[in-house]
Fold this sequence. Notes:
Elements: H1 7-11, E1 31-33, H2 35-38, E2 47-50, H3 63-76, E3 81-87, H4 91-99, E4 106-112, H5 118-129, E5 134-137, H6 144-154, E6 161-162, H7 170-188, E7 197-202, H8 206-220, E8 230-235, H9 244-262, H10 271-276, E9 278-281, H11 294-303, H12 316-328, E10 335-338, H13 357-364
Parallel strand pairs: 2-10, 3-4, 3-6, 4-5, 7-8, 7-10, 8-9
Antiparallel strand pairs: 1-2
Helix pairs in contact: 3-7, 4-5, 7-8, 7-9, 8-9, 11-12
Amino acid sequence: MHPPERPIFEAFPALRGRLPWVALGEWPTPVQPLAPALRAIAPHAEAWVKRDDLSSPVYGGNKVRTLEVLFAEALEAGARRVWSTGAFGTNHGTAALLHAPRVGLRAGLVLFPQPRSACAAENLRVMLAAEDAEVQLLPHWSALPGAMGWVRLRRRAERPFVMVPGGATPRGALGYVSAALELALQVAEGALPAPRKLFLGVGSTCTTAGLLLGLRLAARRGIGFLAPPEVVAVRVTPWPVTAAWRIAALARRASELLHRLSGDPRALVDEATLRAGLRVDGGELGRGYGHPTRRGREAIRRFGALEGLTLDTTYSGKAAAGMLRALRAGLREPALFWSTKSTAPLPAVGDAPPPQALARAWLAGAPRRDAAGARS
Ligand SMILES: Cc1ncc(COP(=O)(O)O)c(C=O)c1O
């Protein structure tokens, strides 16, 4: 498999032929000034946005980068179906479902209930309507480990490749190591000033861990910045899932994998160094995963002033609220918002209620977008 051009292969040429990778997204994603949308509350802010929401017209967002590595791993293992696991509205599952056929894979989904939202309902409808996908619905997240074991056993003829929620493995994190190098190159080219802080939502920790490592590696090589920006990871799932030590540990394991694959000792970064570049902000979680917050909705409205930037209540709205809070508290240094929720239109699916009683009952109570297109 010929690796597509990605910054990680430029930085570690020995990875070519040793790290399988498939092309799914359109890179680099653009960077844009965010300041015009924030003038009313932070007139002097030097705020920018990295538009990973535009990573693919098929389905964008952060998980496209993770899947470029995980699908390649699945293909190398001879898998024919890739299984995603997550909540009813999972973006990782939706991305996997829509991108898998592009590389000759089928999709399977094991899903558990979450608080209702318009975005989650839109995703669930798409996943349930897919013809070639297998969907298993669980009554509760605690049934997930058993269900994953069941899939591995019962579907072994299809050589299933079962992904953990969010694809949060060291290999999955390499997608965002490359993303951090991509950003560093954009800084080096003068597309934006070197950010001192970078805001994003943290759920399974995969995206944050990859960025943390990639930013450090870029700084070591003097690409874009000499000191890496601080990663401010705004919690959208609770502790201990998003504990700082877990994020730093995943980043360290990704660094060890990179070292093993490339043979380059410059890939190794110790956990304390990685931990020092990370701040986990638990101030926007509200009642928990998937529960909308007032500040999240305000951030969605303000950031939405930027053409085409539609955030969601579960992830990116809360991350944006964390950034707004920092700006209101006087943050003056250049800051970057990493936009992670896809803004690509979803495939049209009918309104017919699904056959599964669990999904029918859940969807019946779910909100819809309002007339202006805003998601609740
Ligand atoms: C839109 C969006 N933003 C942020 C995240 C958080 O990423 P991670 O799970 O890698 O921490 C997710 C996870 O699914 C997501 O869907």
